[in-house]
């Protein structure tokens, strides 16, 4: 069966650019996934028309467990395993949003953290030896933005997935009561969701190391401030520049770092 790379949230922006690069540099099929079927198929056709014969498409809503299950079944049936997973899907409320902070917290954590967690828990068992997992994060998700108590909880080497889910739920609850800042959380639901993603990356790294599968690496990266619907027109980087580090991590050679935070292809402090 062919090797397979899967990119979530890939019908536009950084995800779309990642798929284009992987179609040229990854030796195998590249599965573009998107929540919106019509937009996903349009993106797939655009890349295919550029001469990329290894592009594939499958719908995926990371906030819908039945959608995740359908993707898992497709991969198992068609490919028998997975070689690259890029968890790129995510949302961010703009400054002009009329949504309350409580709503922003609920929806952002639901998609960016819980959605990625559910995709990972479903697909990581399909990883073949030498697979690569890339979680797309942000420097807004650095530990320094939290209270010292929260920093210690998130960075604990004993943190489990269950513990992490509980902490993320505590943030949402605090946001709903308006007590999040007094509890040590920042006024950025997006930032908190990405703190959760780095903590999850560290847990995944430890768990995969115990799995017995050879040379599986999982890392998180900040693509930078990118000109996209999320980053806006004033951002410093093009989507192609933003895709560089995620693709770099997707193609890491054996013996490379694992469980780390990358920016511009370099390990940085979380």
The Cα radius of gyration reads: 18 Å
Order of strands across the main sheet: 3-2-1-4-5-6-7-8
Mean pLDDT: 95
Ends distance: 38 Å
Count of β-strands: 8
What oligomeric assembly is this protein in? single chain
Summed up, what is this model?
Helix content is 44%, strand content 16%. The protein has helices spanning 13-25, 37-48, 65-78, 101-123, 148-155, 161-177, 189-209, 239-242, 244-250, and strands at residues 4-7, 29-34, 55-59, 82-87, 127-136, 217-222, 261-263, 266-268.
Task: Give an account of the 3D structure.
With 270 residues, this protein is an alpha/beta fold. 44% of the residues lie in helices and 16% in strands. An eight-stranded mixed beta sheet has the order 3-2-1-4-5-6-7-8, sandwiched between helices. Helix 3 packs parallel to helix 4 (101-123). The longest helix is centred in the middle third of the chain and has 23 residues, at 101-123. It is globular.
